[in-house]
Fold this sequence. Notes:
Number of strands: 10
Mean pLDDT: 91
Number of helices: 13
Strand content: 15-25%
Shape: globular
Amino acid sequence: MLNNPSVTILxxxxxxxxxxxxxxxxxxxxxxxxxxxxxINDGSTDGxxxxxxxxxxxxxxxxxxxxxxxxxxxxxxxxxxxAPYVRRHDADDISEPDMLEKQMKFLQDHPEISIVSSQCAxxxxxxxxxxxxxxxxxxxxxxxxYTIVERDHFNPxxxxxxxxxxxxTKIFKEFNGYRTEFLTSEDNDLWLRIIxxxxxAVLNQCSYFLRLSEGSATQMHKTSVTYYRQLANxxxxxxxxxxxxxILRGEKVLPPPEMKDDAQIKIVRNGLQYRNDxxxxxxxxxxxxxxxxxxxxxxxxxxRDGWRVGxxxxxxxYPILGDKIVEKGVLIKKVIRGRN
Length: 340
């Protein structure tokens, strides 16, 4: 490990053998050199630890533990960090080499801003990047270099990409890190608490690539993510009105009414099931990323389950044809109907 690094990059991982090497490599290639990488292996049962152990780099430190979940793993990492700054990084994502350097310079040039995050673009599980599909969307910035995060920016989604956040370690510790009552969206809850006292900026720079995969927490637990995202917003509203929220008052946080994962929903293969889980967003990302292997797989599954549904064919063909051709087709259809 480095002596007195300025930044600790905190990377929790659970069964991440498919992608963690790409993530680690992108961290080690950062042009800002005064950092250490702290990996929290949260009880992985696959080959994750073997991959981590294959690195002989003094900047890497790994803590192995029994499975505790994301929030507790992050808090464990925060408790071990002595560097002045902490940067988050997910174990299946990729950062551009100059990302950390740009973020550190931004905080130095803007002392009135405490924490910085950046825009990300989505990529497929084959590391094909869709630059058109970003979070937050480009119009969020209104052609400015950065945007200061405000309370109403969290409706419905957070403008802050968790894996891109860089800020003073002391601020994370001041707010006692992530509240473990939030089984998901624990980051949204933390940002909403922090902006009540400190400024967070989102850079209009796309330097981080977030992987969309079937095994990601967001995809596997959509139902609970929606519930806890709304809960974080509700608690922020309550703090604004009363100065406190149920957790601060020591009250029990109720779980979602139904903790059924979307990935466990039974697919009825009668040709009448529209696969919105595949076609509403993932398919468009694959097309923009030119990930034709995944596109063909998605088309095959979608037709298999929904070949009798008109929306299936529209969702497959319209993105390929493009907006202009589709708009012309709709216009021609209206003209023909008008004549009839």
